[in-house]
Design a protein that fits this description.
The structure holds 2 protein chains of 2 kinds. Chain A is mainly α. Chain A contains 28 helices and 2 strands. Classes of the chains: A mainly alpha, B mainly alpha. Chains A and B meet through α5, α9, α11, α13 and α15 of A and α1, α2 and α3 of B.
């Protein structure tokens, strides 16, 4: 019977292998996206059925007889045993961010194959395992956070490393997602109008939920969605108006300052007024749009026009410098493995889980869904003509500042595109221009508009679909931004409270304002730096974000491996150690290259040296001297930040390795700090 | 002749009835599909209520009363919930 059941998986395995073979080996003709989706779906099914089950039964030995903290400490507020599908919904909504959408778009410069393989295989063997095991560890420790677990299971140094890593990541993450938005909205009156209107809409919803119809979240979200839709449609008239368009058209620097001010305001205003309603709205829109995109891809089954591998695997890519290894694996973080997820998995979720075995669905399963979002984003990037894809995503500093120069450069790479075609496309989607719209958001929006338009037969509504997609991305990127700024402020206040008590009180308004200003200044600095970077801020900031995120994943996997060893599961510790080893290789190689590479497009110090030499030789125009000096300083700062991340990775590895060695030799007793065991009285 | 007419009349009636039966079956099937669709929507709407946290106060109130403690008001709970949610990392990149 068991053999019969397992044999049912044979056709799935064969189908998956065939699909994988097609996407990997077919050359010279476009491959249909359905093959990519099929390969991914089959691998996910097999991974969930066999690998996650192995981890649940053999490695972690999940035990439904044990009461979870949600049951033992049930207080109706923090600890609440909740239906597994509701927890799944909560957890997926929390982990699904812009990362799996933007990363694959950028990594598509290598072709669809490297990114897709990393998303699926890296996800199943790395990200899903990290999320699952971290969630389990936190459940067994009454919902302790990653930082607390790092402190207790590794060492105090491990705990402090985790804290600093999280703070650094928050700053870089917010800067880079803000840059994505700036690049999506610059010189775009329609887009800017739509996003600007979400602020008064969110304020209205805040008052609606607090005063008019308290607690009616669904109602408010539907109302908010309809209002936002109206602004998406109305934005066309603003963009076409000779009077109003001017007031909604801004360049990168102005937009960056507006976003900084917005982030500050959202952090200091009462959370019910702006942050929470925006979050509700963005969650509903995000989940609905992801489902729509999945349906659209299945119905439209578009061909993937980008090849499996492009010439840029050699490191000469225009979107970001660096070879496939390690930069494909740095660029795609959240869709494959993201340290940030371990913070979510050790946050609220472990306090809601009713039964231990449900951690498999929630931890492993929701990361698998997130990985699938990354696959869909890859499809959306690859349905574009390659020339169009590169024209949108390449910075002016690489392809040229004029349309003619850009199309000449890109066509010279073997991806034909004309200025007339780009102009027609821009006109169809209601934009002034689509050249140099780096960051991934506009090209994702064009891809989504193409898929939605061809699915529902509404090609004439391409502009609406495009701006709907921009709105959807901007909405939840801004949620990450304002929630992240607020959390960063709390963390900073917590840290500074050790030195001066009043600063530690989050309700003390002067402290809240001051620390919010510090956090905004930190990410705002990197944002402005990215906006003025001639090579495109994505080239420098996105790898920083990827490295820092993988640093946090390293911490999470070290904690997981340590706990597995302490549980007496040393022979199974490879489930964490293998992805850990891979991540260390990737982040260290990437860090080294970003700091020391002699290629000025890749290495921060090389680029700074090149600019210094030009300054010394008088080759920089007088008007640009100050800007160049600032750029040189920024490059040194980026190199320093990268070095700090690399050092933190080494610290955590040394600390963990020290412990493992001592446990192996018997020099240190493995003390498992789990919560007391109590029998569960709940049914699943 | 009368038998034939009677037979023809019966056949006609049977055809008419079977046509009517087909229409009725189709309508019932259609109604069932609509009903299933509506109950799926209802289920989804209830699911959204849970995920959005609309039921959290009712659950908290039940637990507090069961413990013999006096629960905070719905408004205070809403504000507390928001402060708790947004004081920790709850959104990923």
């Amino acid at each position: 019977m068991k053999l019969g059941k397992n044999l049912l998986w044979l056709p799935i395995a064969i189908l998956g292998a065939v699909a994988l073979g097609i996407i990997a080996f077919v050359r010279g003709e476009p491959v249909n996206a359905v093959w990519l989706v099929t390969a991914a779906a089959c691998l996910y099914a097999i991974g969930y059925r066999f690998y996650s089950r192995f981890i649940a039964l053999r490695v972690l030995q999940l035990d439904d007889r044990r009461a979870t903290p949600a049951e033992r400490l049930d207080d109706g507020r923090d600890f609440v045993p909740t239906n597994k599908w509701v927890v799944f919904g909560h957890h997926f909504a929390a982990i699904a961010g812009p990362g799996p959408l933007v990363g694959p778009i950028l990594a598509a410069q290598f072709g669809y194959l490297p990114g897709t393989l990393w998303i699926v295989i890296g996800g199943l063997l790395g990200g899903c395992v990290q999320d699952f095991v971290t969630l389990f560890c936190s459940i067994r420790r009454d919902g302790k956070s990653l930082g607390q677990m790092a402190k207790e299971e590794i060492s105090q140094v491990g705990g402090w490393t985790a804290l600093f890593a999280v703070l650094f990541i928050m700053v870089i993450l917010i800067a880079v997602v803000a840059l994505v938005i700036v690049n999506a909205l610059k010189a775009s009156p329609w887009g800017f109008f739509t996003i600007a209107m979400t602020i008064p809409i969110a304020l209205f919803l805040g008052i609606y939920l607090r005063r008019l119809r308290p607690g009616r979240v669904r109602e408010a979200s539907v109302l908010g969605f309809l209002m936002v839709l109206a602004t998406v449609i109305g934005g066309r008239y603003v963009a076409e108006s000779a009077v109003f368009a001017h007031y909604f058209t801004y360049g990168g620097v102005a937009l960056a300052w507006m976003i900084i001010v917005y982030g500050f305001a959202a952090s200091v205003l009462p959370v019910w007024l702006l942050l929470a309603p925006r979050d509700y709205l963005s969650t509903f829109v995000k989940l609905g749009t992801i489902l729509l995109l999945a349906l659209g891809i299945l119905l439209a089954h578009p061909p993937m026009l980008l090849p499996a591998l492009t010439r840029f695997t050699d490191g000469s890519g225009p979107i970001f410098a660096g070879k496939v290894f390690p930069f494909c694996f740095i660029t795609i973080a959240c869709g494959a493995i993201s340290g940030f997820h371990s913070l979510i998995a050790s946050g609220t979720t472990p306090k809601l889980i009713r039964k231990e075995t449900q951690a498999r669905l929630i931890g492993y399963g929701s990361m698998m869904m997130e990985s699938f979002v990354g696959v869909m984003a890859m499809v959306a990037a690859t349905v574009l003509q390659p020339g169009v894809y590169f024209a949108i995503n390449s910075p002016a500093g690489v392809v040229g500042a004029t349309a003619e120069k850009a199309v000449s450069t890109i066509s010279g790479w073997g991806f034909p595109v004309t200025a007339a075609a780009m102009s027609a496309l821009a006109s169809r989607v209601g934009e002034i221009t689509l050249f140099n719209r780096t960051g991934g958001a506009p090209s994702l929006a064009v891809g989504m508009a193409h898929i939605f338009g061809s699915t529902l037969g509404m090609r004439g509504l391409e502009a609406i679909w495009y701006h709907f997609a921009i709105m959807f991305e901007a909405l939840f990127i801004l949620t990450v931004l304002d929630a992240g700024t607020r959390v960063g402020r709390f963390m900073l206040q917590d840290l500074l409270g050790h030195f001066w008590k009043p600063l530690g009180r989050t309700s003390w308004y002067p402290g809240a304002v001051a620390t919010s200003a510090v956090i905004c200044a930190a990410w705002g600095y990197f944002l402005l730096q990215g906006v003025v970077d001639p090579l495109g801020g994505i080239n420098s900031l996105w790898p920083l974000f990827g490295i820092s995120n993988q640093l946090l994943a390293t911490i999470a996997l070290c904690v997981s491996a340590t706990i597995l060893i302490k549980m007496g599961k040393t022979r199974y510790a490879w489930i964490a150690v293998v992805p850990l080893g891979w991540l260390v290789a990737v982040t260290m190689t990437a860090s080294f290259q970003k700091i020391w590479s002699p290629d000025p497009r890749l290495g921060f110090l090389a680029q700074a040296s090149g600019l210094s030499a030009k300054l010394a030789a008088g080759a920089i125009p007088a008007a640009k001297v100050v800007e160049t000096q600032r750029l040189i300083f920024n490059l040194h700062l980026d190199a320093a930040v990268t070095a700090v991340f690399a050092v933190l990775v080494l610290v955590i590895l040394v600390e963990s390795g020290r412990n493992w060695w001592r446990y192996a030799l018997g020099g240190k007793t493995a003390v498992l700090r789990e919560a007391p065991v109590a029998l569960s009285r709940l049914t699943a | 002749m009368a038998d034939f007419k009677w037979q023809t009349a019966n056949e006609n009636a049977r055809q008419h009835n079977s046509g009517f039966s087909v229409d009725l079956s189709f309508a019932i099937c259609h109604l069932k599909s609509v009903s299933r669709f509506l109950s799926s929507l209802n289920f989804f709407w209830d699911y959204l209520r849970e995920v959005s946290g609309e039921n959290d106060y009712a659950r908290y109130q039940t637990t507090a009363l069961a413990r013999g403690t006096s629960p905070m008001s719905a408004e205070d709970f809403y504000l507390w919930r928001l402060r708790q949610k947004y004081s920790q990392i709850n959104r990923c990149c």
